[in-house]
Amino acid sequence: MKALGFTGWKGPIKFRMPTAENLVPIRLDIQFEGQRYKDAFTWNPSDPDNEVVVFAKRTVKDLKLPPAFVTQIAQSIQSQLSDFRSYEGQDMYTGEKIIPIKLDLRVNHTLIKDQFLWDLNNFESDPEEFARTLCKDLGVVDPEVGPAVAFAIREQLYEIAIQSVASARESRLSKKGRRGSDHGSASKASGLSMDLMKLFSFKSSVVRKRKELDIYEPVVDLLTNEEVDALEAREERHAR
């Protein structure tokens, strides 16, 4: 993994994904007319809205889904894009945050679990590059695992970015009553964040190990066909 430069944002910035590419994680799980379509991918919020319908039509054609799925897919994507865009233009406070990212994924026959720290301030970070490096280091050969890992990271970063909007709002309200106060109230973990920041030496975006923290070594298991069938049957029951 290439070293990524540390960026020390001291105050609020406008909402966006805390990564080099401002991409929205989109998750679809649609059941209609006795069929089910599941997928997860990223979308550029700057793309024209008509691209959503084009994508939906192409997906339905390629997967031979019922025509009614076009509307279902397009509406779900548009709804998630609208949620993302509703935060655009609002302040988000990142402070000096080092946050934990957890992975617990099954992709086809591969089960992967890991936990590491991520520099929320590094707006040049690249989840896709990190995922490719992780899979290479762990000897993962399934080409679908890397994109799933990157998506899981982006999904968690998105949730934290939304929380950072609320932190910025709380900070503004606090300042109204305390002129000249700093952003310390926006993050209860600021002391821990400052301590963890030393681990990065201003050169990297990810840290894996530290004895004082509950961070685990990555685990990769290859499941048998019987184990996969059992897990999929359980997931199907939960979805009903």
From TrEMBL:
Source lineage: Eukaryota, Viridiplantae, Streptophyta, Embryophyta, Tracheophyta
InterPro entries: SNF5
Protein family according to the UniProt entry: Belongs to the SNF5 family.
Official protein name in the record: Chromatin structure-remodeling complex protein BSH
Record keywords, A-Z: Nucleus, Transcription, Transcription regulation
GO CC term (a single one): nucleus
Location(s) in or outside the cell: Nucleus
Pfam families: SNF5
Organism per entry: Cardamine amara subsp. amara
